[in-house]
Design goal:
Strand order of the largest sheet: 6-7-8-3-9-10
Oligomer: single chain
Number of helices: 8
Structural class: alpha/beta
Bound molecules: adenosine-5'-diphosphate, magnesium ion
Number of strands: 10
Order of helices and strands: EEEHEEEHHHEHEHEEHH
Distance between the termini: 32 Å
Length: 238
């Protein structure tokens, strides 16, 4: 587990300023949900935390350590995307263990970690299957399994459920929430779905054009929105 501190973070693409002077403290072990309209900088922010994107200014700390110059692989962070590209010619077990194999971990350790993750995610009976033999929800669980085996200090989710149908989305929300409770790992979760944010989050961050409109517990935002933008975004039916 680790806190994530963003202190005056800025990001520019050429002359386009996407994020400016952003301050945010993500608490150790919390499930923080980032919401905001398309293009407001949610994915950019996650990619900055993961180290996949350089920053134009500010300081980023993970678990109290300044990581501005630290390579992604040294940050102990795992990211789960919406397009959960699994390796089609590898089994579930191979997909889940692949990053550990690349890291040259011993075979017995890989098997143990994969089995643990499969137990947590209810994938125990599916380890020898190939991705095309899985349902959408099962594939999404394998994608999460790939992240879990690495024991990350922080999980980043970028709209992980947006490719799933409505019913499965509801089920997966509950599963991710349960996963968070079980692992206790810090999670930063991006969605444009207000219901997802309201039902899952410890705290919600409302982003708009690269700056924060409000941070608070779901009910706090619902009862006392800081401005019309937040009221509109949280209050509108999805
Ligand atoms: P969101 O995830 O909230 O939809 P993004 O973080 O993907 O938003 O994008 C924020 C802004 O940054 C958008 O205006 C987008 O066009 C711009 N942007 C994202 N990536 C790049 C890039 N590689 N080059 C230039 N502009 C980018
Ligand atoms: Mg995005």
């Amino acid at each position: 587990m680790a806190s994530v501190e963003l202190d005056g973070i800025g990001k520019r693409y050429g002359s386009l300023s996407v994020i400016e002077g952003l301050n945010l403290d993500v608490r150790d072990g919390e499930l923080l949900i980032l919401v905001g309209p398309s293009g407001c900088g949610k994915s950019t922010l996650l990619r900055i935390i993961a180290g996949l994107e350089s920053i134009s200014g500010g300081e980023l700390r993970i678990g109290g350590r300044l990581v501005n110059e630290m390579a992604p692989r040294d940050r102990n962070i795992a990211m789960v995307f919406q397009s959960y590209a699994l390796y089609p010619h590898k089994t579930v077990a191979q997909n889940m263990g692949f990053s550990l194999m690349l890291a040259k971990r011993p075979k017995a350790e890989i098997e143990r970690k994969v089995k643990e993750a499969a137990d947590i995610l209810n994938l125990g009976g599916l380890l020898d299957r190939y991705p095309k033999q899985l349902s959408g929800g099962q594939r999404q669980r394998v994608a999460m399994g790939r992240a879990i085996v690495r024991d990350p200090e922080v999980f980043l989710f970028d709209e992980p459920l947006s490719n799933l149908d409505a019913k499965l989305r509801v089920q997966m929300r509950a599963e991710i929430k349960a996963l968070h409770e079980r692992l206790g790992t810090t999670m930063i979760y991006v969605t444009h779905d207000q219901v997802e944010a309201m039902t899952m989050a410890d705290r919600i961050v409302v982003l708009n054009r690269g700056h924060i409109e409000q941070v608070g517990a779901p009910l706090e935002l619902y009862d006392r929105p800081a401005n019309l933008f937040v009221a509109d975004f949280i209050g509108s039916p999805s």
